[in-house]
Amino acid sequence: MRTLTQEFVVLPLLTAPPEPRWICDEMLGRLARNLRFLGYDVVYARQRTDSSILEQAKAEDRQVLTRDRGMSERSPRVLLIRSLELDEQLREVSRAYPGLRREVRFVRCSLCNAPLREADRSAPVPPKGVPERHWMSGAPIYVCTSCGQAYWEGSHTDEIRRTLGRVFSSPPGADPGGR
Ligand SMILES: [Zn+2]
């Protein structure tokens, strides 16, 4: 006989795996900003102890990206990033997370990690920093819900698209070489 309890059994293994969320240590600010441009939730930990970073990672189910070998040996939750160069750092992340997104998404503020929203088109003036001609063109503009930074297709995305083009022009895991 079926009981009420059985109907409410939670089966976590059958749910889709959640998108990875990270904490980047102080040495990896540029990597953090670029992962946010891909839409990922990335905390940038500045002036924090290893222990407090690891505690937050555990509490919020995040993985830690660090250049500190000592910290990488303290927890399986930590990925050691070996390179000093952004391109190679992104390759290292994509080797560890093969499903890493390869396109820009206007989801997260690259400066503070807060969610973005579409700019209010009924407002009389453009959001701070948005050129008048761009506002008038009607092209999509996104605004950070926390710090107010505005984003749009163009200056903010050209560099990250160039980077992604370089990083992923070779198959993931291939030796980048030629540096
Ligand atoms: Zn922001």
Describe the fold and architecture:
There is one protein chain. The chain has 179 residues and is α/β, with parallel strands linked by helices. It folds into two domains: 19-105 and 154-167, Rossmann fold (3-Layer(aba) Sandwich), CATH 3.40.50; 116-152, no CATH class. It is 32% helix and 13% strand. The protein is built from seven helices and seven strands. The chain has helices spanning 4-7, 29-37, 50-59, 69-72, 86-96, 132-137, 155-167, and strands at residues 22-24, 42-44, 63-66, 78-80, 116-118, 141-144, 150-152. The strands form two sheets. A four-stranded parallel β-sheet has the order 2-1-3-4, with helices on both faces. Helix 5 packs across helix 7 (155-167). The longest helix is centred in the last third of the chain and has 13 residues, at 155-167. It is globular. The model has no long low-confidence stretch (mean pLDDT 88). Zinc ion (ZN) is lined by residues 109, 111-112, 114, 144, 146-147, 149.
Key features?
Rossmann fold, 179 residues, 2 domains, 32% helix, 7 helices, 4-stranded parallel beta sheet, alpha/beta, binds zinc ion
Task: Give the arrangement of secondary structure elements.
Blueprint: H1 4-7, E1 22-24, H2 29-37, E2 42-44, H3 50-59, E3 63-66, H4 69-72, E4 78-80, H5 86-96, E5 116-118, H6 132-137, E6 141-144, E7 150-152, H7 155-167
Parallel strand pairs: 1-2, 1-3, 3-4
Antiparallel strand pairs: 5-6, 6-7
This protein binds zinc ion.
Zinc ion binds at residues 109, 111-112, 114, 144, 146-147, 149.
